[in-house]
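#structure-requests
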Amino acid sequence: MEWYTQKEVADLLGVSKATVYHYGKQKKIIKILDPHRLYKEARYEKAEVDRLVYEKQSLPTGMSPNEVAKKLGLSVQSVYKYIQDGSIKAEAVPYGDERITYVISGTAFQKAEKSLKQSETQRPKKYEYYDSKNDIVLYQKFHSNRIPEARVIRNEEKAWGFYLSNIQQWLPYEEGIRNYALKPAYSIHQSTLDYKGFLEIEMPKKVVVFYPFLDYLYEIWGVENIRLREQNETVLLYVRVGEKPFISEVFGIVDILPYLINGEMHHEDDTLILRSPNRKTSFELPIELLETISDLAEQEGISISKWVEQKLSLIIK
């Protein structure tokens, strides 16, 4: 038999019958004319369909961006972003009507998973500083009529509770709420800022501005825009860059700048402006050069952006 029905073509190519119809309109496959309607279903010449089947079988196999997103716990948009910047190695393949999709091989997925997990572990996880059960965050200020100031901390067993500075005592969270009627001094929630990077601060716990600055961040920026990691003598803060109101009688920007380790901080007209140290840019490069850079970056297990940054830094130095 020298032809396939429309359904057979759809099954062979793994597409819908509507796509088969479009393939015929685009002359990718040849529809057999049936002016007298002798057949119930449209038919297509076998040779062209077999050619498409062969081409499809020759395409690279692997996971789709959707599958990778689910496995890595990312949005599909993030996966496409990582594909574009070279963090995820993928091959472009034809898809549907003059479109392309991407295929990620098992090896490429393993490398991306390792690379992205390494970069992600550099920043704190939310469970390190936020207790979702009680909606409290590390060092958050509480108070009551009996207790002027209590700070949320965890004991050596990592149990959440309060440190009462006036009596220098730690209490379990439930006991502080029940026995001392402790209540939060402010809301710790704000809308999430558009992602444009993080500013990094490392501040000693013993400096005078430590608690006032944290109170300001929690109340004005919100826990949605802050990541925090407690260390032995210091606290590492990652704050989403952006702009927020700033009015404080307790501390000024000059008190915070000595602890800024990455990013820019400005104070203008009662507004605190935080900027990332990185700026997004783009270059037009010859395809061969870009492919070479991509291969070299892959060999080192880093993204194209990171590879270019490292090489440029070496040249400039």
